[in-house]
Amino acid sequence: MAIQKVGVIGCGLMGSGIAQTAAQAGFSVTVREVNDELLQKGLSSIQKNLARLVEKGTLSAADRDQVAARLKGTTNIEELKDSDIVIEAVTEQLPVKRELYGQLDKLCPRTTIFASNTSSLSITEMATGTSRPDRFLGLHFFNPVPVMKLVEVVRTIATDAAAYEETIQFAEKLGKVPVRTGDRTGFIVNRLLVPYLLDAIRVLQDGLASVVDIDNSMKLGCGYPMGPLTLLDFVGLDTTYYIANVMFDEFREPRFAPPALLKRMVLAGWNGRKSGRGFYDYADPKNPKPVPLVF
Ligand code: 3HC
Asked: Where does ligand 1 bind, in terms of residues with CB under 6 Å?
């Protein structure tokens, strides 16, 4: 049976993007947050994104209204019980995720597919907390979700082949390009991206070049849309630090070890764009200024 009803858990940066993308692709979506304040914040960011599309003429006002009508917000997890697939995009804490999947496992029919948007935790470990490791997989989206075309579809040794193919088709219906990968920390993209981002910090830490020159090198020399330090601020320094530590634990290779400067910046609360300061200062968000770092 093809997927029609989509449940999304978490309406933060990734969850709201996933819910928006699914509603725009014609699916009926229910997105759940833990409280009303967070839910309204997430839903209003979706409304802003849709309004921007209408302004640009990419989406008609009538289509925007239909997208909004397909999208329902709730704080009650029971409203996800009819979902054909539930995509979880909550904080990267295994106990929190396992607790949620335990509740969902009791609520949803045996046929519901469970998918996690985790960027680094083990899908296998999450799946074993439920009665359906065969219908459990990873669906890793990229930020900003409505724009980035890629989705990593992650299978474990226990994932059923038919459920996996069904999810690949679902990702295509979302307008994304799915790539197939196994359950290894970081999958494909972060396995390649994280060492590169950490190396950019090491280049800065070694005093080899300035923040702006490192970013310009990769933007103008290699055609990347953002330089690595801008991208670190965009992804979040705390998020990258967390992912690097999980990857280091898994692979025990120095290239995944977070540099001291990254740790200090996270300890200082300089988490990038979302905290107003990282490698750049976002007091004027349209015109970020490099932060003079002393190390
Ligand atoms: N939500 C929705 N749409 C957005 C958006 C957002 N947050 N940010 C930008 N857009 C849209 C714009 O409206 C614009 O649409 P248009 O072409 O129809 O007018 C389009 O994206 C391009 O935006 P801009 O012209 O403002 O700016 P750029 O051309 O610089 O593009 C970008 C912005 C798409 C973010 C681009 O800089 C980019 O691709 N950066 C790299 C992003 C990246 O690498 N993401 C992956 C991060 S890693 C990750 O997520 C994995 C995790 O596990 C760590």
From this structure: 49, 52, 56, 58, 119, 142-144, 146-148, 190, 225-226, 231, 235, 239
- Each domain of the chain, given as residue ranges in start order, spans 5-182, 191-290
Compute, in angstroms, the gap from residue 147 CA to the centroid of ligand 1.
6
Relative to the CA of 236, which ligand 1 atom is closest? 54
Q: Which long-range contacts (CB under 8 A, 24 or more apart) does 144-149 make?
A: 144/17, 145/14, 145/17, 145/18, 145/20, 145/21, 146/17, 146/20, 146/21, 146/24, 146/49, 149/175, 149/176, 149/177
Distance, C-alpha 183 to centroid of its chain: 16
* Residue 142 CA, ligand 1 centroid: distance in Å: 10
Q: Give tens-digit pLDDT for 140-160.
A: 999 999 999 999 999 999 999
Mutate to test the pocket of ligand 1, among 45, 55, 92, 147 (most ligand atoms within 8 A of CB): 147
Residue nearest to atom 36 of ligand 1 (CA): 225
Assessment of whether the complete model's pTM goes beyond 0.85: yes
Q: Does domain 5-182 have CATH number 2.20.28.120?
A: no
> Domain 191-290: what homologous superfamily?
N-(1-d-carboxylethyl)-l-norvaline Dehydrogenase; domain 2 (1.10.1040.10)
The angle that helices 237-251 and 189-205 make with each other, rounded to 10 degrees, is: 110
pLDDT digits 0-9 by tens, 169-181: 999 999 999 999 9
DSSP-based three-state secondary structure for 52: helix
